[in-house]
Design a protein that fits this description.
Elements (H helix, E strand, L loop, with lengths): L2 H7 L8 H10 L1 E5 L4 E3 L7 E14 L7 E6 L4 E2 L1 H6 L6 E14 H10 L1 H34 L1
Antiparallel strand pairs: 1-6, 2-6, 3-4, 3-5, 3-6
Helix pairs in contact: 1-2, 4-5
Length: about 150
């Protein structure tokens, strides 16, 4: 699939014009992943964001014991790794390929430069990322409420 067409399907970039999408295309790098391959580990530097083109990615957090706790399985069109970029902190979780696939990645330095030089595009991208973050926060809130109710029962 053509990269620009794929990016148009990604919620964060769906409101961008063709010219704006071309700017994103120019920043994207490709990375093929084998099942079980680590994309990044918890506490790694947050220097890239990722967009899943194919396959699936498991996001997990260490629980202080043996196996990490799965937080989510993300698939086609999902963005991940964006929080560490904007927080300028280490990764808060790990990402591992749950299935063979391909991701597109954008370096933090490239995102920063683009956002600094094109404020209109910056607003559109940040608005898209904020919507995605809000949706994930709502899901986390629902999961917490379910967990609390299970203890009350």
């Amino acid at each position: 699939m053509e990269l620009k067409k794929f990016l148009r399907e990604v919620d964060t970039f769906s409101a961008l014009t063709d010219a704006e999408l071309e700017k994103i295309v120019a920043l994207c790098r490709e990375r093929a992943l084998q099942k079980g391959e680590t994309v990044f580990n918890e506490r790694d530097p947050g220097d890239k964001l990722f967009i899943i083109e194919s396959g699936a990615i498991e996001i997990a957090k260490s629980n202080g014991g043996g196996q990490p706790t799965r937080i989510a399985i993300l698939e086609h069109g999902e963005i991940f790794g964006e929080l560490a970029i904007f927080e300028e902190r280490a990764r808060s979780s790990s990402a591992v390929a749950a299935r063979e696939g391909r991701v597109r990645l954008i370096e933090k330095k490239d995102i920063d430069a683009l956002l600094a030089t094109d404020p209109v595009l910056a607003v559109k991208i940040l608005k898209g990322l904020l919507k995605k973050t809000a949706a994930r926060l709502r899901l986390a809130d629902e999961a917490i409420q379910t967990l609390i109710r299970s203890f009350d029962a």
